[in-house]
TrEMBL record:
SUPFAM superfamilies with a match to the protein in the record: PLP-binding barrel (SSF51419)
A Gene Ontology BP annotation from the UniProt entry: D-serine catabolic process
TM regions (residue ranges): none
Protein name: Alanine racemase
One Gene Ontology MF term: D-serine ammonia-lyase activity
Ranges for domain Alanine racemase N-terminal: 16-127
Length: 135
């Protein structure tokens, strides 16, 4: 198989070294298992559902996202999504509540007001919110 020269590739462009990717996924998986850790990579560096799926295949328990849009994109391939930042505003809450029912959504919260808004939005669409303290 021949590949184009780097001079022929329009930038910006994402180039992936498949062998290195596989080595890194395997290395992360081994490390997590050996240390009894649960791996939930943040997708901010790649934003690629196919790569998130490969991270899950390598042992990740879910993914972390920064925005409702990222949750929507990753929810197509991942059943367990952590939204790292508190969603504020009706439109963001509505988008989160529209995620497919199979997606387990966890949300990092920074105030009781945000929790109240999230709980109200969940109840409004027939979902049951649950709370847990950080471990």
């Amino acid at each position: 198989m021949s590949f184009p020269s780097l001079d022929d590739i329009e930038t910006p462009a994402a180039l992936v070294d498949e062998e290195r990717l596989e080595r890194n996924l395997a290395k992360a998986s081994v490390y997590m298992r050996e240390h009894g850790l649960r791996w939930r990579p943040h997708t901010k560096t790649h934003k690629v559902p196919e790569l998130a799926a490969r991270q899950l295949q390598a042992g990740a328990v879910g993914v972390t996202v920064a925005t409702p849009r990222e949750a929507e994109v990753m929810g197509a391939v991942v059943d367990d999504v952590l939204l790292a930042y508190s969603p504020v505003g009706a439109s963001k809450l509505a988008r989160l509540m529209a995620l497919p029912g199979h997606v387990r959504l966890s949300v990092g919260l920074d105030s009781r007001e945000v929790l109240a808004g999230l709980a109200e939005a969940a109840r409004g669409v027939g979902r049951t919110p649950t709370a847990s303290a950080p471990r």
